[in-house]
Specification:
alpha+beta; about 375 residues; five-stranded mixed β-sheet
């Protein structure tokens, strides 16, 4: 499993003396129940086998050793239930790190000075961490769901008043019993709400789903504190003991629709502001400039987009195109293999939100744009 912490750790990693091979593999199975990642790996091996052995950063022996480490990890460590992997290894060095996750990622391989993080960021932003609350008047289950996978489950079961032993001669009257049951429900729901609040503090889900009868859900939500209440994005019917895989399968289209609505709202704001030339950018260079000035609130970029650029060897400013020299200090410009990677790194370092969207959705913005803080 992967998390934002993994992304931040890769960004903070100090640049070493060896180049880094970053490898992203689609390990899902096709219609013939086969994985095809090996074809991609073999093609990449063949490309490097044709290189001269003295080419800087691409020595055949060192690249071969890197591929061997990758293959060893795939053979020994990859778990069949997963469908994607991000693998990093130094070419000629000792560092190696691999992550696997239950969702696919497009095949891609890059050899660069630093680990490539944009494809990993794209996976993380595409799948939110959900908290799912299932309840009736005496039980609550709280599921932690991320990347379509159940990470943890918390269950609280209370002992209700026994109807048979209390509604009879010498016990509660019917009226007193109903009052006692109402008090019991309030007490249980208050305790369930406190359990959900603890769950939110510990697991930090991005949203909450509350499932049960319409009456129970409505009454239970009255006990949730306002900050937790604001996390609820969907409510619906479900049995408290319904198996987690069935719950997750039924919720998936509702959560996907909510995510698409959020994405559409962001795009509408971006297009509206861009048309008014107000706190927004469109296109690579304008967005790169705003990022490097620390003004970006939300970066919006087409999925799987790559673009070559340049960087000033003196001031470090990144540009989306080749130029004779840096316009700021006259410094020499060096090639940048992918400015999208640079944009995502800058945004992450500044804690700006990053949204990867359908390429057609940002075609009129030339593939990228941003909502600005100022």
């Amino acid at each position: 499993m992967i998390s934002q912490n993994d992304l931040e750790r890769l960004i903070r990693r100090e640049q070493g003396s060896h180049p880094v091979l970053s490898l992203f593999l689609d390990l899902s199975v096709n219609s013939n129940n086969q994985r095809t990642h090996q074809i991609f790996l073999n093609q990449k091996r063949a490309e490097f086998d044709e290189l001269q052995s003295d080419r800087a950063g691409h020595h055949v022996e060192e690249i071969g050793a890197a591929f061997a480490r990758v293959q060893e990890w795939l053979d020994d460590e990859f778990r069949e239930e997963n469908r994607g992997a991000a693998i990093y290894t130094e070419v000629g060095g000792a560092w190696f790190e691999a992550m696997q996750f239950p969702v696919p990622v497009p095949n891609r391989m890059v050899v660069a000075e630093k680990p490539v993080i944009a494809p990993l960021a794209q996976v993380l932003t595409a799948y939110q961490h959900h908290g799912v609350v299932l309840l009736d008047r005496e039980h609550v289950r709280i599921l932690s769901v991320y990347l379509g996978t159940l990470l943890d489950e918390i269950e609280v079961r209370k002992e209700p008043i026994d109807t048979a032993s209390h509604v009879q001669a010498g016990g509660y009257s019917q009226k007193r019993y109903q009052k006692r049951k109402a008090e019991e429900m309030r007490s249980f729901f208050k305790e369930f709400a406190e359990e959900v609040e603890r769950f939110v503090r510990r697991y930090k889900p991005e949203d909450l789903v509350v499932l049960g009868t319409e009456e129970n859900v409505a009454k239970f939500r009255e006990f949730l504190p306002e900050p937790v209440q604001q996390l609820v994005v969907y409510t619906g019917p479900a049995g408290v003991d319904e198996p987690a895989p069935e719950v997750m399968a039924r919720l998936e289209p509702h959560l996907r629709a909510h995510r698409e609505q959020e994405e559409q709202a962001t795009l509408e704001r971006l297009y509206e502001r861009s048309a008014q030339d107000y706190l927004a950018t469109a296109g690579f260079q304008a967005t790169l400039t705003a990022l490097q000035e620390g003004r970006v609130e939300t970066l919006v970029v087409a999925r799987d987009r790559q673009r070559e650029g340049t960087r000033c060897t003196q001031c470090g400013f990144v540009f989306s195109r080749a130029m004779p020299q840096c316009p700021y200090d006259g410094g020499e410009l060096a090639p940048v293999p992918d400015v999208v990677e640079e944009m995502v790194r800058i945004a992450q370092a500044q804690e700006a939100q990053v949204e990867f969207v359908d390429p057609n959705a940002v075609a009129e913005l030339r593939g990228v744009g941003a909502l600005l803080r100022f």
